[in-house]
Model the fold of this input.
Amino acid sequence: MGSPVLRGSGRGCAQPHHSECVHGFSAGSIPETWVYNRLSRSDTNAALQQPLYYYRDSNGAEVDFLIIRDGTILPLEVKKSDSPKAADLSAVRSIPTAPTDTVLPGIVLCTAQTAFPLSSAAHAFPISAL
Done:
């Protein structure tokens, strides 16, 4: 078996070019993986052992992370952008819940340097805040 082929902008390669990691098909997975590791380490250090969830519906709408504690669901979306929009949290509306659950408006973790509101209830925070 040969080494796997990475696919980016239509060309296969054994080792991705820097621009493909920064701008290519997998560019969004790098900050998502970093956030996952930070959230996991944070829970472990706090002795919480709380699982992280992911949501994707049949139409492809997804939320990168769901933190669920005591019937409260906090959706987290990770964007490799310094100017996310409230629409980045649109999939939050399709999260199935029990009648007693509360879904918070959500947070977008992004590459901006400071926190800012996306709407009256949702906010964007720098990934570095983790």
Q: What stands out?
A: The mean pLDDT is 78. The chain has one domain: 6-129. The longest helix spans residues 29-45.
